[in-house]
Amino acid sequence: MNSTLHPFPELIAEICTDLGINLTRLSRNWVYQLEKDGKIRHIISNRFDLNPQAAGLLMDDKYACYSVLKSQNIPTIEHYLIFNPGRLPTYVPAGGVWPEVKAIFERHQRLVAKPNHGNRGRGIYLCDTYPELERAITTLFRTHPTISLCPFYDVPHEYRVFFLDGVVKLIYGKTRTEGEWKHNLTHGAQAFLLDDPHNPHHADLRRRLADLAQRSAHATNLRFATIDVSELTTGELLIMEINSGVAMGKFIEQIPSGRRLAKSIYTAAIQAMFP
Fold it and tell me: CB of 184 within 8 A of CB of 240?
């Protein structure tokens, strides 16, 4: 198997062999069934059998996750929820969605429109004008029952924190490419590790990011997830979203020690599934 193209299944198979776990792939390789000592656990895509169901649903709903974090006074990027009148008409105000959308745009002037349930940076639009926002929402309504609107922030760096059972396992940063405003590795952003022991900024930043991760995990009752944090030009840190799926494919490609780090994290997660 080509580990560059498909590192995840290769790593899971390797770890299961190392740990003496019987691995069966089901549902056209979408489901990994792990068996050991009479226990059965599952990995669905890249979601591990660790988080409570409610926590998993919460992380997959951007607005709901924002609402919970905000209720616990955790700094997070503001989200507005817009219901698709064609899919969920009973949740739409009597005047329709557009007066609310226009009020949000007038408040912030520059908005990001995205699916409320989505990942990997798909279907995300930066809107500088109200007509652009209308077109973006109309496009998203073709395929999504709900969307989120967020104020646009100038974000030089974004960070991803890997969290498992009270412990921060890894933090890496993402630098966007020139001319790109998103920090997705799949869209050309470059990953870098915050591991310079002689750089006091790295140490302070790691401490602040770890604190945010701990607070977010406590607020959402998650066990295993990645937490994406935006660093503004002012240095302020804001939670952007929390991901129940733990993907490391592009990270493995870009970081020389990426495969070793990914294997250590996935190994710890699988061990936690078989206490």
Answer: no
pTM (two decimals): 0.92
| Over residues 52-74, mean pLDDT | 97
Amino acid at 96: G
SS (H, E, C) the chain: CCCCCCHHHHHHHHHHHHHCCEEEEECCCCEEEEEECCEEEEEECCEECCCCHHHHHHHCCHHHHHHHHHHCCCCECCCEEEECCCCCHHHCCCCCCHHHHHHHHHHHCCEEEEECCCCCCCCCEEECCHHHHHHHHHHHHCCCCEEEEEECCCCCEEEEEEEECCEEEEEEEEECCCCCCCCCHHHCCEEEECCCCCCHHHHHHHHHHHHHHHHHHHHHCCCEEEEEEEECCCCCEEEEEEECCCCCHHHHHHCCCHHHHHHHHHHHHHHHHCC
Residue 226, judged by CB atoms within 10 A of its CB (0-12, 13-18, 19+), counts as: buried
Cβ–Cβ < 8 Å for 43, 31: yes
Phi, psi of 90 (to 5 degrees): -70, -15
Question: Does residue 2 have a pLDDT over 90?
Answer: no
